[in-house]
Give the backbone structure.
Amino acid sequence: MMVYARIVVQYLAVFVVALVVNFSLPRIAPGDPLNYMLPEDVLASMTPAEEGEVLREFGLDKPLPVQFANYAAGVFRGNLGVSVRYGEPVWGIVLDRLPWTLLLMGWALAISSLLGSGFGILAAWWRGGRFDLSSLVAVLFVGSAPPFWVAMLAITLFSAELGWLPSFGAAPLGAIPGSPSYLLGVVERLVMPVAALALFQTANILLTARSSMSIALGQDYITFARAKGVTERNVFFRHAFRNALLPIYTNVMISIGGLVGGALVIETVFSYPGIGTLILEGVEARDYNLLQGVFLLATVGVVLANLIADLGYPLLDPRVRRA
Amino acid sequence: MRKLFRLAALPFALAICAATGSTGASAQSTGAGLSGATVPPATFLSAVNHDGPKSADELTLGMWSGAGNVTTYTIGNSWNDWVLWLVFDKLREPSPYVGKAEDWLATSITQISDDARVWEIKLRDGVKWHDGTDFTAEDVAFTFEYYREGPANRWTHHASAVPRMVGIEVVDRLTVRLTSEKPMPNFDRITAADLPIIQKKQWENVKEPRSFTDLGIGTGPYRIVDYKADQYYRFEANEDYWRGAPVVKRLNLVMIKDPQTMFTALKTGEIDGAARPVPPELVLQWKADDDLEMISAPTLWGAWLDINVARKPFDDRDLRHAVSLAVNPQPMLERVMLGQGKSGKHSWPHVDSFWTKPDLSAPYDPQQAKAILDERGYVDTDGDGFRENPEGEAMNWSLKIASNQPLFLRAAEMVADQLADVGIRAKAETIDPGSMSALWRTRDFDLRIADITPHGIADQDMMIILYQGDKKREMVFDEEKADIVSRWLDQETREDRLKVSYELQEYQTRYPNRVMLWYPESVFAYRWEAFDNYVPSAGYGIFHKYSFLPESARGETTDPLLY
């Protein structure tokens, strides 16, 4: 119990540090929201008082410590301020976009984890064989291909040439949410982004799984199990796989952070209205409130993922449980 | 008896003459205050001119630049202001860029005072807002007051700066009188043709306009019925539009930022038109495409080399003159734009603007550039082939471009090469777009290449706005230029103002703070089977509200199209 309590306290401390970083990071970049809101010629003729009046609407005219205090207090009240770019509460914008990113990332994570782990383990089991060699070649190629390039190729092939799949958006415009045509449209628009995002992660997870499984298969206890007459199937599942699972699990959890970055690029190429495009739009507009909110969400997501990972270890490894 | 009749007729004759003379100010002028430059006709580019439908139930267009909440506070540039005009009207239309405008919400705009400071606007009766209420003089007066007193946006200078309104008076239900601080002889041609009129009822209690997210209520041909900012916008035709019901009943705009994705979506039929200029290389490819048609329509944009006059040595106007002489835009036009456009050697304003001085040209003369640099003390003292400043310090100029503008990178490399030919070392550097737009305010650059909208390059008032304000005054520390600007502001007639504008243009060409590089030809593509009734309007391309009005309702808002 104390172990769990200590973990939670540690993550709370991380959260506080993240608040400070999330507040500071958008402000480090040159410029401010005024450059986005107003053209140069208008800015040229404005006095500092007039500039302040424009920023006042978003609480950005106050001294930095006051802005930070408002931001921190707002986080716990569920008020992340108003977006400069959209004029709407940040929280509402984020909640509106989050499901699309979760859909995209969730499927990409599930597919890449299953495929990567599965193929990696099999490659280790048939190490040196045809499957192992061909999977390594495929991984090297796929892992080197930038996701945005894969995305553009996919659009060229499946949209432009074959006309099989739509090339942009998350849902068909005008369809009633929840209707069969809407759901079908959502699925159609997920295929290419998920594939582009998952391919890169699959390669990464495959290599880790192969390596982890290879190490496990080379251990003394495997030799002993075979000497005892344990069947190959049980050697595979009850001994090798269980021990290889921990590094694979860790890598899958870490890849969530990579998926966030990949989603940013993929969402831009496909005009997919998720958190990734929100980050890009926020940076472009120097929308401090929006960026603070999105970074906070990303932080919470990564922290949660790591917390789940940490809490999951004892379940997977009895040794950690006993410790 | 005859004498009596003549005496009685005289006041009537005088009244008729006065009415004719005053309404002449609001009629289309072909001579007063016009240089003679005209926007060239648009050109149909496709190999085959299909005959598609002239109306449509629904159209979906792709757009790449966000339109915010479709208000004047969240739309600020010329890539997307056409979205605003779907919902809102102006007193005269189509724009301030072409020297001609026809009465739209106004039925007449009359100069009342000899010094061009007082104008009277008669409004059209029977126009309704989208909520069914009457459009009246209260709305027009409110619009000017709101823009004069409230937070700034791209349009507020029309009431708060150039010109600055000091009197806004509702004379009666359909008449407004405006008085400006300085003369505004082009009020009917520029301000009236640029300022969107907003509803008093909807906006009078809005204190934070950038957070205003309600559906905008306008008088325009389309009602906005649904939107998610920078994702999609859905419009329905205003069937009671005073000019005539639009021929496209439902209009959807979808945001597609990536250019490849947008043009792929057009090719596959996911969208019916791409409100984004077709890249030069794609123009050549699509000319013979059976599914698509393309029109080259004047959008009055420009690409320029901006010089930071607030930083030494660029405050030396002779140095800037030398830079102008050293830059040759023609190769950039040929290699970067594949010949699709005009060379910037005309200089500023836009070569096709109605107030452009005829025969204005910034010559290309590297030999003269070298001579000026030698004379001013910019010589190569250390023998490395590049000049130092008169103090002997090395000059390594940075030439910044935004990372989302690949064409500008190539142009920047060519500019650096041309400057090297006259012994100036410059290096192209890319930065993110957000930092790029901050550069101007921080003045933390040497040179930069950016594009300029019609608002900045084809709007005569805007040219002077660029010299107003504390930050800009640093750019006008030259007394000669400051004197020209001051005289421009005091001119009371179109002709006099144009003459002074010519002086400023000549001065700017010789001692530029911005060197024009090229004026791009803007080509737009659409699927003719969905709708085949687009028309060009200078400054807006082909995607604008006039394309969706019945042909009989378009009036003078569109331009000729050559086949």
Remarks:
- Residues 180-217 of chain A form the longest helix (38 residues).
- The two ends of chain A are 12 Å apart (CA to CA).
- The mean pLDDT of chain A is 87.
